[in-house]
Amino acid sequence: MEDMGGASVQVQVRRGLGQLAPGSPGQAPPLLAAEGGSGPTKPRQLMPSRPRAPGGSSLTSSPTGVRRPRRTPGHGIAVKSRGEGPRVSLHAGQHLLDEDTFTENFRSDNRPPRTYLCYEVERPDRGSGVPLDQDKGILRNKKPFLLFCAQSAQGPEVPCHAESRLLEQIQSWDLDPKLHYSVTCFLSWSPCTDCAQDMTQFLKESSHVSLSLFASRLYTRGHYDQGLRTLKRAGASMAIMTSREFEHCWTAFVHHKGNPFQPWPGLAMESRKFSEKLQHILRGA
To answer: Does pTM surpass 0.85?
Structure first.
């Protein structure tokens, strides 16, 4: 998805292909971070199709039915970047976002020119097909210039948006269709229209995977509202990040050096504003 907007989603999926919607950059090669702009337009990248509660955390049901993570400690395993990947620092053998990068991109009253996607996979057991080092990660959209270079060298099927990259990664896993997998994502921007459509297709072809999306803000360009409604009809569960989700991400995906998460002024108001708008959009689904 492109960079602008935020909404969370839970999607039921079988192996397939897909991508998110309104404003988050797509995905590139499995677990490779990159950067992209948040301009009014974005290159659309489609990818071939193929897919535990968050490690160290559990999910609770909110009044709206969206499963939100409880505040329990954890750690994130991010992805190495190629070229100009996301600003992630290697700490204790793992890639984590630094404090400034997290705040700059996830603070809901900011409008960063990129999308970050932090994900956690709840798998049935260790032998379920999800690589042990890929049950958590951080992805970011790929810069248009880097995307052009990759396309020139590898062909046109290079994912650009963070959501696309996540779907590509899931499709690379050897998942057992008889088991159920739950993927929870925390996005700095909600999916753009194209990402939502691709993700919808992915869900239609995959019934053994559920996906929950929590977005910091809504991406509101193009037919983003149609994309979100389509995604919901495909089985996705979407919600806006609240203080609980921000704190969970801080604990699991940020090298916080022991510093507690500090809510910024207006966080609750921004979350409420985006949440009301999202609920209004989804009523027509």
So the answer is: no
